[in-house]
Amino acid sequence: MDILKSLGHPEEIFNLFKFKMGGCRAVMPKLDYVTCCKCPASLSVLKRSLSVAPRGCGSSPPRSVLQGWRRRGDRGLQEATRPSSALKTAGFYRQTAFLCLSCQESMSDSLRTCYVYLNQTSRSFAAVIQALDGELRHAVCIFYLVLRALDTVEDDMTIPLEKKAPMLNNFHTYLYQEEWCFTESHEKDRQVLEDFPTISLEFRNLAQEYRDVISDICHRMGVGMAEFLEKKVGSMKEWDLYCHYVAGLVGIGLSRLFSASQLEDPEVGRDTELANSMGLFLQKTNIIRDYLEDTQEGRAFWPKEAWSQFASRLEDLAQPEKLESALSCLNLLVTDALRHVPDVIAYLSRLRNQSVFNFCAIPQVMAIATLSTCYNNPMVFQGVVKIRKGQAVTLMMEATNMRAVQTIIAQYSQEILQKVSLTDPTRDKTLHILAVIQEKSALPQPDLSCRNHHLSPMYLSAAMLLAALSWQYLSTTAAQAQGT
């Protein structure tokens, strides 16, 4: 899920952020650095950049959790080049400024190029990846790029199906083919395919435990994508299966990487059911929220088993005379998404590393806030549904410990409860899952004393937010510099 989708222009958010922090001048001088490895990187440049950020930095919503992940960036990678020339561009150090200089200098040219690609294809998610601790950061960066390349193949409608299906099924084997690349794509982010040898090289440089996870998830996701190339999402079970392929597997893969890094317990990686629910909750939220845009562009992700109860065609739900039926269908799908929340709570309660916790928790609280806004809301069928900017900033600042996350979840589940209609067909199911969520949110809090804190939670959230917002500005200025 794109955690910056609801924020808007960076300067506006920075002003809101200063207000939430009680005034930037009073707080920020104590926070001069962003955690990278164990090294600091100055935030002062990011603060100055935000104050002059140009307008027009928004982006279209992602179709999947690579939503962060697997999103279509506003700018493609056409300007990016192979390692030898990529490091010579005027915008390179602006592209990698979030990593401290000592970390950049210790990296190979090919790894630095991978971070350039990361920042070009995922503005907001790049920031939280680079805030991860130690070698986990590199593993997740390569994991993202591999899946982004796989998704670029799936997205490219110019590739014939008879060629695309074998590519998706066999994509994981290309990780071990040193020279494999694909130069026939017409997608914006085709550079990750054209320069796949750089990405696969860094994949092969990872420790074996990371390579095993990435290769396995890439294989399973490619097979799933191939299955749904010509297949519509029909039943609710198929909806779960589709979301598993494009999002649940990401959650499972990330969880296994967390455990492989030893930053989290082995159980985090072994419990695939909880990890799958993390991905499904985000993906279903995206699909529900993006109904109007998807139908206008000829895409159908709402399951037929749900919408066929209320309309003969999915797009008919946008008709004014169908509003009551449309809201009933919407509430049914929101209720289905909410059933994953107890698993989300259980999953987050197991995490012990602060950088991993923030990485996982922020998208989840954004998702339940978005569902609360969508529930029984006619605007889902009439326009764009967003959470408020100040609301998004508050969530980023607060979602840094389990007690706060449970409080947030309880708050939004209570908001949904107040909107449940006496005549809604899904009323009983909605009330039941909300009661379960409230119960889980009220459980005794786990001992978080062993979680690693490099910075206080508020400051760490501040750093992540400012870094993420700054990439909107940095991406724009780097492209302008290259253009001139």
UniProtKB/TrEMBL annotation:
Looking at the Swiss-Prot or TrEMBL record, what is one Pfam family this protein matches? SQS_PSY
Q: Which InterPro entries match?
A: Isoprenoid_synthase_dom_sf, Squ/phyt_synthse, Squal_synth-like, Squalene/phytoene_synthase_CS, Trans_IPPS_euk-type, Trans_IPPS_HH
SUPFAM superfamilies per the record? Answer: Terpenoid synthases
EC main group? transferase
User: What cofactor(s) does the depicted protein rely on?
Assistant: Mg(2+)
Any one cellular-component term (Gene Ontology): endoplasmic reticulum membrane
Q: Where in the cell is it found?
A: Endoplasmic reticulum membrane
Record membrane topology: Multi-pass membrane protein
Q: Does the keyword RNA-binding apply?
A: no
Alphabetically, which GO biological process terms does the record hold? cholesterol biosynthetic process; farnesyl diphosphate metabolic process
**What's the stated role of this polypeptide?**
Catalyzes the condensation of 2 farnesyl pyrophosphate (FPP) moieties to form squalene. Proceeds in two distinct steps. In the first half-reaction, two molecules of FPP react to form the stable presqualene diphosphate intermediate (PSQPP), with concomitant release of a proton and a molecule of inorganic diphosphate. In the second half-reaction, PSQPP undergoes heterolysis, isomerization, and reduction with NADPH or NADH to form squalene. It is the first committed enzyme of the sterol biosynthesis pathway.
Family to which the UniProt record says this protein belongs: Belongs to the phytoene/squalene synthase family.
The protein in question is named Squalene synthase
User: What does the organism's lineage look like at the top?
Assistant: Eukaryota, Metazoa, Chordata, Craniata, Vertebrata
